[in-house]
Design goal:
This protein is of the alpha+beta class. It contains 17 helices and 10 strands. It has a 6-stranded mixed barrel. The longest helix has 43 residues.
Length: 408
């Protein structure tokens, strides 16, 4: 009851109430900032991982020299390896694409039709056309949405693929130019992929690149991406003489390492906001104890114990911290729910493109909230708030009622 009375402003105590309110708002903003930033960082990593792994697999078996002549045997060995869920032969080759006088660098990917249509990353990302139109010998391809914008192409457009591996003449090698019809346009959500990829049946890619029956690599999926190394070690030993096994951590090591370091750095820096808020709670409680010195003396003479006095002021400070933490969690979730709208509003007000996919890699601001992290952030704010109450509460309990009543 007394703590509740002290939380509400008394006569002439508006300034103390204002400081306490500022403390509550500071805790709220600190908790919300931590939840928002950590959720965005988690979302960024999860989106990157899902889309990169969905496009490139957990690992690839790549032939030395860029070719795998005995790829069918390698596929059989991979599927027989415990922990491997799929093995997909691929051809990846950088070429040039041309349409209406525009030329763009592209990455041609050849896939078996059954693998193309069952690919989860591509399945729900077709924005125009259909994957069913892409068949061996049909001369149709699927291209990324950003590449379609750059070339000015749409479904039904005839684009030319330019390969340096062409006929040899007395005047040198003549580039090989083959035309294909755009049968589908996809948007994975990763700018670099949507800007570069041209996907076609593996038979057409072999014909375009004059590879015969060879493929370039075999994409592997495993039961656990975090244990891909131990799972694929037996396969790596078997193919070591003519191929190399590279997993997603090796292929994207610098990117995911940078994300991990940035995540720790952001958590550490933003935790300082909560510490600042806790110091506000400390200062407001010190002022409250000073203002209530006479009340404390009267309560002590009426029989209140030192422990009782400590509980009163600890309850006041912890309540401010708890209310701020609760408000921060709510604010964080509300912000994350409307995050893309907030980005759009800020862009409209400032006139700046805050989420340029060519720089940010993803096309939208991602978010993935980890309940464990939210609990840790909330507990951290509550513990800091509790610790901030100890000194003012001890100071209140140490008040000598005789001295106070004599001189005040």
């Amino acid at each position: 009851m007394i703590a509740r009375r002290y939380l509400l402003p008394g006569k002439g105590e508006a300034f103390i109430f204002l400081v306490a309110s500022i403390s509550l708002v500071a805790v709220m903003l600190g908790v919300a900032a931590l939840i928002i930033v950590m959720s965005v960082m988690n979302g960024f990593r999860a989106e990157m991982f899902d889309k990169i792994v969905g496009t490139n697999g957990h690992a690839v078996v790549q032939g030395i020299g860029g070719r795998l002549p005995n790829w069918r045997d390698v596929v059989a060995q991979a599927k027989a390896t415990p922990g491997v869920t799929s093995a997909v032969p691929l051809i990846d080759q950088p070429l040039m694409a041309s349409y209406n006088g525009r030329v763009e660098g592209v990455m041609v990917r050849g896939m078996r039709v059954e693998d193309l249509r069952s690919n989860k990353t591509l399945g729900g990302k077709i924005v125009m056309g259909t994957l069913t139109s892409i068949r061996p010998g049909a001369g149709r391809v699927a291209i990324g949405s950003r590449l379609a914008e750059a070339l000015g192409a749409t479904v039904g457009s005839e684009i030319s693929m330019i390969s340096p591996q062409g006929q040899t003449t007395p005047f040198g090698t003549v580039p090989r130019i083959v035309s294909y019809t755009v049968g589908a346009i996809f948007e994975i959500g990763i700018y670099d992929y949507d800007k570069a990829y041209v996907i076609m049946p593996i038979e057409d890619a072999q014909t375009l690149l004059l590879m015969g029956d060879d493929v370039g690599m075999i994409e592997l999926q495993t039961v656990d991406a975090d244990k891909v190394g131990p799972i694929l070690k037996p396969l790596a030993d078997k193919v070591g003489g003519f191929a190399v096994v590279s997993d997603w951590r090796t292929m994207n090591a610098s990117l995911f390492e940078a994300l991990a370091v940035e995540r720790v750095a952001m958590f550490t820096v933003l935790s300082i906001i909560i510490l600042v808020a806790v110091f506000n709670i400390l200062s407001s409680l010190i002022m409250l104890v000073r203002a209530k010195t006479r009340d404390i003396a009267i309560l002590r003479t009426m029989g209140a114990t030192r422990a009782g006095m400590m509980r009163i002021f600890m309850t006041v400070g912890t309540t401010i911290g708890a209310l701020g933490t609760l408000a921060g969690v709510i604010l964080g979730f509300v912000f994350l729910f409307y995050r893309q709208g907030v980005v759009n509003v800020v862009q409209a007000v400032t006139g700046q493109n805050l989420w340029d996919p060519s720089i940010r890699y993803l096309t939208e601001l991602p978010s993935k909230t980890d309940p464990v992290e939210v609990v840790v952030i909330a507990l951290m704010a509550l513990v800091f708030s509790f610790l901030a109450t100890l000194y003012p509460a001890w100071k209140a309990a140490s008040t000598d009622p005789v001295q106070v009543l004599r001189y005040e």
